[in-house]
Amino acid sequence: MNIQSIDVMRQSTPLKKPFKTALRTVYEAESIIVRMQASDGRVGWGEAPATIVITGDSLESIQSAIVNTFTPLLIGKNLLAYERILQEIHHSMIGSSSAKAAVDMAIYDLVSQHCGLPLYQFLGGYKDQIETDFTVSVNSPKEMGEDAIRYVREGFNVLKIKVGKDNILEDIERIKEIRSCVGSGVKIRIDANQGWQVKDAVRTIRRMEDLGLDIELVEQPVKANDIEGLKTVTDAVETPIMADESVFSPAQAFEVLKHRAADLINIKLMKSGGIYKAQIINHIAEEFGVECMVGSMIESRVAVTAAAHLAASKKNITRFDFDAPLMMLNDIVVGGVQYDGRMMTFPKVAGLGIQDVIHSESVVGS
């Protein structure tokens, strides 16, 4: 079973509401979709959103990497030697983790189809359904409280709250308002997206602890490259601290874990370059006794389906952040992972279970 063709296309889908974090504001989900066809006629799917402020990847750079670097490398290669193929992808160029992820997904889709297994079973099969949180964008405390109430009424009982955009006093007010709106029965996670200074992070988290706001975890409170500062925060507070932007690669995961700089790791395929490296990160974390979450960027159900399959396959992946497709006005994917409120289930078919992707723009490269 060889790789016969690789086509790429752009898609753009408006969001129901602007997605705001300390790093950016997003109005529409834009990504590159990969359609990889094998010599036996099977089709594998992948996706890479442009998240330039986090990964450095734009739509243009993703498209160029896939069309000009990966396609010449991959055409004609035997998919059953996928270990060799994936190694070649990662060694073919520096960076471009999102483009690597899109091609990686399509390869795993095809290989697991060939084996006749849903991808989550091919990768380990630990769970057959998972539960996602829902993200509250950073806005005024009042608006965030109203959003939180709406999401809880829609059935979500884990909320991920974006902070770090203004000042720490405003962030405390945001969490106080949300907790008062949703009560004590809802889990609250906080994501500062690198928005706090080290001492401010310690002061803010301790204040939230003193107020009894019952925060499950705080994600990436300080700058991504400040591992020492991340450790300072982790050591100074009782609330678990999760590393996100600090961990792209297995080597970075090892550094964070070796120094005990975080209590948890957030794995994203767009950071790791796909499932291949994401599994390594999870295995390293598991050996350190550290649980992982798998999350996503603003992605359609193509990339989220791939990430969800990985997340369901592993015991050590215990938290799930896959709400992005629910934020979009239109669903471009036929098949793939399905939502029933906060619960996500997988079709009982081989691979990712994606049948087709409806796109608004023509194929732009092959």
UniProtKB/TrEMBL annotation:
The keyword Transcription does not apply. Binds 1 Mg(2+) ion per subunit. Mg(2+) binds at residues 191, 219, 244. InterPro entries: Dipeptide_epimerase, Enolase-like_C_sf, Enolase-like_N, Enolase_C-like, Mandelate_racemase_C, Mandelate_racemase_N_dom. Substrate binds at residues 24, 135, 160, 296, 298, 321, 323. Its EC number is 5.1.1.-. Its cofactor is Mg(2+). It holds the Pfam family MR_MLE_N. One of its GO terms (molecular function) is magnesium ion binding. Residues 141-240 form the Mandelate racemase/muconate lactonizing enzyme C-terminal domain. Keywords: Isomerase, Magnesium, Metal-binding. The keyword Magnesium applies. One of its GO terms (biological process) is peptide metabolic process. Gene3D superfamilies: Enolase-like C-terminal domain (3.20.20.120), Enolase-like, N-terminal domain (3.30.390.10). The active site is at residues 162, 268. Belongs to the mandelate racemase/muconate lactonizing enzyme family. This is Dipeptide epimerase. It comes from Paenibacillus sedimenti.
